[in-house]
Design a protein that fits this description.
This protein is α/β, with parallel strands linked by helices. The chain has a single domain, classed as 5'-nuclease (Rossmann fold). It is 61% helix and 14% strand. The chain contains 7 helices and 5 strands.
Length: 131
């Protein structure tokens, strides 16, 4: 059964590069679920690809591929909840994007990430986490 899953940037990066340690697993996550890409993840993903490859053509190709998934824009309340949770937990500002992705995942019900801190946060909240 396909689940609606919010993906974190690292899942997209691992799925992109065949020589990455989690490539097959990350690629399967994208193929086997109804994928939701928060806009903040899209921006991070494109930035990572640009930095790693310096190839604008690859960015264009990946944008076309991402059109297969649902791209959502985080609304004010979702961002506010993420920032509020970050403040409540005394987390570092470096975690800001993760808390926003977490907030989107709470709304959607599931999260795909390899980020250990984000997985721990999601687990504490009872969020379904894959892989």
């Amino acid at each position: 059964m396909r689940h609606r899953v919010v993906v974190d940037t690292n899942v997209l990066v691992y799925a992109t590069f065949e020589d990455s340690e989690h490539h097959k697993e990350a690629y399967a996550v994208l193929q086997e679920n109804e994928i939701v890409v928060p806009r903040i993840v899209l921006y991070e993903y494109l930035w990572v690809l640009a930095r790693l490859t310096g190839n604008p053509s690859l960015l264009e190709l990946k944008m076309k591929e991402l059109s297969d998934y649902e791209l959502i824009c985080e609304d004010y309340e979702t961002v506010r909840r993420g920032v509020g949770r970050m403040l409540e937990e005394g987390a570092s500002l470096e975690m800001l994007n993760d808390y926003i992705v977490f907030s989107v995942a709470l709304r959607e019900g599931a999260l795909a990430t390899y980020d250990k801190k984000l997985r721990k946060l999601a687990s504490r909240s009872g969020l379904h986490i894959i892989p």
